[in-house]
Amino acid sequence: MPSYSNDDRIVVIKLNNGYNIGISIDNISGIELIEHFQLKETETKTSDHFKKSEVKIISTGGTIASKIEYETGAVRPALSTEEIIEFEPEIREIGEISSEVLMAILSENMKPEYWERVADAIARAFNEGNAGVVVAHGTDTMTFTAAALAFSLPSLPGPVALVGSQRSSDRPSSDAPINLYAAVYTAKHAPFGEVVIAMHGTTSDDYVLIHRGVKVRKMHTSRRDAFQTINGLPLAKFLWIEKKLKLLSSDYKRKGELKVDAKFDPRVFLLKFYPGMPVDIVYWLTDRGFKGIIVEGTGLGHTASEFAEAFKYATEKGVFVGMTSQCLFGRVNMNVYTTGRQLLRAGVVPLEDMLPEVAVVKLMWGLAHHKTMEELKSFMITNVAGEINARHLEEYFPRWHHGT
């Protein structure tokens, strides 16, 4: 097989079970040719310079754009988008595909300044005439990027589908090919104009769920169906065998004229409260120049009561303090208990059912666009991209909690 190693003395061999291994030539005593195959020339519609595409794939890196590093057994990002397509050549059946390698990083290295680059690349893709855009991304911070794009692209002429994989593309158990196919199909055919995440819906290859980008969380470290919509339903389901998209909700943004406004102020801190947390952290953050704190409180939105004075100090210094819940499901209600009411009087703003990471990204965007605290507060409690649900239905809660 083509070697992915920097050591040219390592030969890559594919085993009968589909896995690859790397062997140093120093350990090879002899080679016998059993059979020879000629690679057939095939026409490809994919090109990094193809201008009349229907869907553009923008690669940022991550596991879906990675291969095995045989020196260590780990994976690292290095594949071009063109090579990704080779793992799922069937996507050529969907339509004309073009590609761009914007960056090649693991998703833990993503930054707000990179979100701006991704948003600008998506805007260029739509201006080139593409019906939709796919962003290949690492799964660990994909939800942060999806939220950033949702706020940066308030109006879209077509879908933007982020896609990743839990297992690298050269593994036989990889979820990359089916996820990629579903993302490309969604980008071309889905009726909505918003940012979504396309990932496996089960551990098998049954279907891929299309999650709203601001209402989804990675819930497992390694399962192929790691992503789950929180406090809502996925927008759609891509059925793999039937090769079709089934809408699960009519509550989606319609396609509109392209608008892009990608600008973030990174001076935001995500504070996860725990029993015994030193209150001094709030004073330190305030005095160090942070302009916003998103709190992951307990239950309905609480911290220890001693934090009320610290949060008051922060808000009086012009720091926005917003409350989310560690519970994820349900919404914040700080009027129920005494501690919650104390925090409200200190200036802490309850953020409904917004996910903590979405609140962080939204606050970064808000700080870069609103000059007064009143404007910022109004923005943070306004449903902009579907990040706040007015209603919670029984079916929004995971079925496995009901023993099914």
Task: Please specify the SSE layout and strand pairing.
Blueprint: E1 10-14, E2 20-24, E3 55-61, E4 66-69, E5 74-77, H1 81-87, E6 97-105, H2 112-127, E7 132-136, H3 142-152, E8 160-163, H4 176-189, E9 195-200, E10 207-212, E11 216-218, E12 227-229, E13 236-239, E14 244-247, E15 268-272, H5 280-287, E16 292-297, H6 307-316, E17 320-325, H7 338-345, E18 349-350, H8 356-367, H9 373-380
Parallel strand pairs: 3-6, 3-7, 7-8, 8-9, 15-16, 16-17, 17-18
Antiparallel strand pairs: 1-2, 4-5, 9-10, 10-13, 11-12, 13-14
Describe the model.
It is a single chain. The protein has 404 residues and is of the alpha/beta class. It has 3 domains: 1-30, no CATH class; 55-247, Rossmann fold (3-Layer(aba) Sandwich); 268-380, Rossmann fold (3-Layer(aba) Sandwich), CATH 3.40.50.40. Helices cover 23% and strands 22% of the residues. It has an 8-stranded mixed sheet with strand order 6-3-7-8-9-10-13-14, with helices on both faces. A 4-stranded parallel sheet has the order 15-16-17-18, with helices on both faces. The protein has a two-stranded antiparallel sheet with strand order 1-2. Helix 3 links the parallel strand 7 and strand 8 (160-163).
What brief labels describe this structure?
404 residues; alpha/beta; Rossmann fold; 8-stranded mixed sheet; 4-stranded parallel sheet; 18 strands; 23% helix
